[in-house]
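Predict structure. Chain length: 121.
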Amino acid sequence: EVQLVESGGGLVQPGGSLRLSCVTSGYSYGRYCMGWFRQAPGKEREEVVRMDIYDATRYADFVAGRFTFSRASAENAFYLQMNDLKPEDTAIYYCAALEYLGYCPSTPDVWGQGTQVTVSD
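Prediction complete.
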């Protein structure tokens, strides 16, 4: 069973950067698509980015070139580099695994515990 552990959240000023990490165990390359989701207070959880089994990525429109999702295979880890952060990026960020079914499904099968990102002066 895949397990995901996020880290790297924190408090940052607008315009700042953070790098979120998602360390996996039980992960099999080619079996899972991976993604980051976020949930702001009072809002529904939304997708930030997903990566398919060929490492192709798809970002939400609100990312607008500010975030980069990458894989570090040797570390069994994934990273979300977030630059030019805005107050509206404040949320709990979740790493997620989506079992590949010939396509990446819309709903994750496995969630991490989440890491808080706060963008504020």
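Summary: The chain has a mean pLDDT of 95.
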